[in-house]
Every structure is written in C-alpha cells, then in structure tokens.
Amino acid sequence: MSGAGRPFAARVAASLTGEGGVAEGARLVVAASGGVDSTVLLRTLVGAGWSVIAIHVDHSLRDGEREAQFVRDLGESLGIETETVRVEVAPGNVQARAREARYAALADAARRHGAAAVVTGHTATDQAETVLLNLVRGSGLRGLAGMAVRRDLGGVALVRPLLWATRAEVEAEAAARGWGWIEDPTNATGRYRRNRLRRDVLPLLEAEGGSRTAARIAAAAAAARAALDRPALLDLVGTADGRGGVVDLDRVRVLDRPARLAVWADALRRWAPGAAASAALLDRIDALLDAPVGQRVGAAGAVVWRERGALAFTTPTAPPPPVVVEASGRWSAAVGAGWVEGRPLGAVPPSFPSSPNAEVVDADRVPGRLVVRPWRDGDRVRPLGRGGSALVSDLLADRRVRPSRRRDVLVVEGGGEVLWVVGHRLARAVAVTDATRRAARWTVSTGF
C-alpha cells in the first residue's frame, strides 16, 4: 500500500482528504464506541487539529453505559464535545438492524452539528471480514469489493479513513502512545457470524498467509471496487427515476447470465441500498425476465417489479395515512408524495382542464367530508363515461400504470364511494352535468 512509510496521522489525513473527499479542517462526527479503532481514530484526528464531535451510539445490546462513560471521559480529557444517542434496534437480523439504526443516528448527528462527514474506525481487518462474509453469502463481485472509503449516508458522507491499516497496526499505534480503550467482550464470543470469522477463521488464514493476510484481502477488495467504479453495465441498460430505477429488458437480455447478475447487484446497490445482494436474491431477480407483468420479488430493503419491457427496482415504503378534509371551501391534503387540492370556482367554467391531474366537479354533489388516501385492494369506482363500476386495480392496469407505481396512486373518497382515482378517472357521482350550478376544481401534484 502506498505511503506505508508515513506517520500514522499523516496517512489518516491523506485518506480523509484524498479518497475520502473531505476538505482540510472540516468539522467531523466521529463514531466513538470506546474500542481501539474508534479511540485511536478520535485521538489522531484531535491531535492533528481537526474539529470533531464524538458520537456514541447505544444500541442497548451490551454494556452501553460503561462504553458511553468511557467516551465522555475521553472527550473531556481531549477538550471536545461528546454525545450519546440511544437507538431502538428493530426485530430481525440484530447486527444488520443495529447497523442501520447506528448509521441513521450518526447521519442525523452530522446534520444537527453541521458536520461535513461521519467518520468511522473500520480497518483493513474489518474489510477482510466483510469480504469473507460476502463470499459466504455468495454476493458476487460487488461483495468482493467490500466497503468503500467514502459512501453516501442519506445525504451525509460516510468516510472510513482507516481502511489501509490492519487492526494490529491500530493497536500498535495505541500501544506506542499509551492510549487505552475498552474491549468489547462480545468480540471473543461465537454469538455472531462476524465474531466467529474474527475468532476462528482469520487466525487460520493468517497462520497460512502471514500477518499481512487481512491487508492483502483488503487490497484485493480495493482493486475490485476500482474495477466496479468504472462505467457500469447498469449505465448502459438502466435509468434512474423518482423512486428507484428501471432496467430495459431488451438491452439486458443480450447479456450473458454473469453479466446480468452483475447488473442486478449494481441496481440493488444504487436504487435499493438496504437490500443485501445475495446469490439467492440475484437468482430470483433474474427469473423475473420470463415472469408475467406485475410479478415482483421482495427482500429486506427492496422490491423488484416485472413491468412491460423492464424491471423496476424500488425501496418499499409503508402506505401513508389517510387525510380527512372538509370540502365546503378550499381544501388540501398532503398524502405521501401527493398534494391534492380542491378550490371552489363558482359558475361552471367555459372549458375544462385537459390534464388528467385536474378535474372540474359539481360542488353541490360533493359530500361535506372527504378522505384522501392510497387506494386499497377491492376499491371500486363508477367511472365517468362508462357504465357500472370497475375495480381500481383493473382501471390502473388498463391505463398501463407501471406495477411499481400503482401503490402511489391516491383516491378521493366521500360518502363511502371513490369519487376520484387521482390523476386517472373521475366518478360519475361528482361529474358536472347540465344541472350543475356551482363547480369546484380538484388538482394533484406529486414529488415524482
């Protein structure tokens, strides 16, 4: 690795300002667990004159108060601000959910404190463990690339300026300077797969390959990432949209299977980063090529839809709650990414809107209270210009609304009836007739 002869602090600074892309002297949020890696990183940055705030995230999974107190005491001795943030870890994969909660808390702290980046103490040894875990999961070339020095964290930069150093090198720096730290007792247990790799597998590999084994694995990861960061196949076959991205099937079908799997892995990374690109998930996505329109594959953090001529990659979201409005005057409702509004017009206008995002209705036929909400399975509408009623789902399919976008469609309901499939079809019940004396205008705008 280049720069091996430089002092430890100089290499940290070079990583931060080089591949990390952080301006010299910028304010930083340091993720401080009390362990050796984050402690050495924090002390090194303070000693080099960086403006830092130490954030300790307590997941309530171990002795968080002991670690938090260590970080507070360390911050006081260094003359810097510290903060402890307690988070709730959602059920499921404990380590994955804890990581999501931790990163969300760190990004929020960076925004609150006006920091340019969140920095963590991940080392080359952590990188080697990550690559091995990804190999076990069968996550392909993207998994071999491991962790990036810099990545986006919800609009905040996450930078890992120690990925060049092994854990042994970090411990040697701490010993040379007389710095203490707290050892996490769970690291020595076999409770988690990463712990078992750290305790049992890496020592075996190092017994065969020597003490630089982890560093060589990390270097291989950096080479894989450099190859992946060249113009990707995904840029040739896919495009981003407001809620993720779509891959053109005519373009991707000409690729062989390994290339297609690389496209799916890249699409997940770019458009649904909460999903782990396991071999099983990539196989299920590949099978969508021959699936009927409307089929989908779901995973933690992603939903992939088979659409007409495309696969759409989205991040699942909970349906927004309904909004109740009084329709006697002007009203508005923000539901999800949609803004629906009603405005009295008085007399019927001489011409009606040509856009599907606006309708003129008979104000006297509109119930006094309306509900604006996402449509639900089983919803029916009596559409203007057609007899009888139709399922909203069928109406959206007839109008060729992309399956991945159908759940974004709202309805305006009143008197127990769907009065407007927003942006698509007005119901007969509120349509203007020859007898209409007072009209109103309903409009919708969206964030997509």
From TrEMBL:
Task: Briefly state the protein's biological role.
Answer: Ligates lysine onto the cytidine present at position 34 of the AUA codon-specific tRNA(Ile) that contains the anticodon CAU, in an ATP-dependent manner. Cytidine is converted to lysidine, thus changing the amino acid specificity of the tRNA from methionine to isoleucine.
Name of the protein in its database record: tRNA(Ile)-lysidine synthase
Annotated ATP binding sites:
33-38
Q: Which PANTHER family match?
A: TRNA(ILE)-LYSIDINE SYNTHASE-RELATED
- Reaction equation(s) it catalyzes: cytidine(34) in tRNA(Ile2) + L-lysine + ATP = lysidine(34) in tRNA(Ile2) + AMP + diphosphate + H(+)
Ligase as a keyword? yes
To which species is this protein native?
Rubrivirga litoralis
Report the domain of life of the source organism: Bacteria
Which intervals of the chain form a coiled coil?
Answer: none
- Please state the gene responsible for encoding this protein: tilS
Pfam assignment, any one: TilS_C
The reply on keyword Ligase is yes
Query: Regarding domains, what does the record say?
Result: The N-terminal region contains the highly conserved SGGXDS motif, predicted to be a P-loop motif involved in ATP binding.
Q: Which family does it belong to?
A: Belongs to the tRNA(Ile)-lysidine synthase family.
Keywords, comma-separated and alphabetical: ATP-binding, Cytoplasm, Ligase, Nucleotide-binding, tRNA processing
